Amino acid sequence: MNYTLTTILGFSIIFLMTTLGASLVFFFKKDISKTINSFLLGIAGGIMVAASIWSLIMPSIEMSEATFGKFAWFPAAVSILVGGLTLALLDKIVPHMHNGTHQEEGPKSNFSKSMKLFFAVTLHNIPEGLAVGFAFGAAAFTGDGAAYISALGLAIGLGIQNFPEGAAVSLPMRQVTGSRWKAFLFGMGSGAVEPIAAIIGFFLASHLIVLQPWLLAFSAGAMLFVVAEDLIPDANISENPHTGTWGFMIGFIIMMILDVALG
Fold first, then answer.
1. How far apart are CA 212 and CA 138, in angstroms?
2. Burial zone of 107 (CB within 10 Å; 0-12 exposed, 13-18 middle, 19+ buried)
3. Which one of 58, 160, 167, 253 has the fewest CB atoms closer than 10 angstroms to its CB?
């Protein structure tokens, strides 16, 4: 296994899947239906919760056992809260809008609703990129091939849930810009932050070894915040309230299979 190529592949997947989702603007004349949107958001939420548990929180606890003993849960517990608080703070200082509820947060601004939607997706892509970077950084430190495969599984899972996020930006943006290409570029741009965050996370985790369990759980907390704050509420806007729920369960199973099969 070429570890460098595996890392590059993992960083690329999370961005390319966002780009692929954004490309739906060339195939759909209108926004996707509420039912489909609810199902896709449910899948995204399920994947992120499963990834947080198996790929981030559990490894964090295992890394802490040698130092904290029976209190190995402590770094994970603290970091999960810090991750959530960080996203809550960003929610307060970055103007953005929730896609399903159309609820606006952050300081008042003259940005259009579509731009605020773009900011929301871009903002919430940061912890996903960090999570992938932290996982590959930890793998680089150990040099364990199994750790690289597990990190790649995390990247694949998060890449799958990035697909609807890319579409969630590009489809509404087309109505504003009047151009499919501009809308596509906005959707693709929302995912550009992920490989950047992944690179930052990689160097933090591979060089600040003592912080690895804290960093993994931090990204998990940030992702859990996104799921509870945005994805779950937005996934339950369908006329059929069970659509988002089934999507969540399927997404959870997908990530569980990826983690077990590749981890």
1. 7
2. exposed
3. 253
Closest CA to 113 of 35, 169, 161, 164: 169
- Among 122, 236, 130, smallest CA distance to 187 is for 122
Q: Is the dihedral of CA 147, 55, 82, 97 positive or negative?
A: positive
The first and second tokens of residue 96, run together, are: 């953005």
Residues 6+ away with beta carbon under 8 Å from 23? 166, 170, 184, 187
DSSP string, 134-163: HHHHHHHHHT-HHHHHHHHHHHHHHHHHHH
Measuring CA to CA, which residue among 219, 213, 215 is closest to residue 64?
213
pTM of the predicted protein model: 0.83
For the record, the structure tokens of 200 come out as 């930052």
pLDDT tens string, the chain, 263 residues long: the values are 688 899 999 999 999 999 998 998 888 776 677 787 788 888 888 988 998 998 889 989 998 998 888 899 999 999 999 999 998 888 787 776 665 556 667 667 766 666 777 777 788 788 889 999 989 998 888 888 888 888 898 899 899 888 887 887 788 778 777 788 888 998 898 889 999 999 999 999 888 888 889 988 999 999 999 888 888 877 776 566 788 889 899 999 998 888 877 76
What amino acid occupies position 162? N
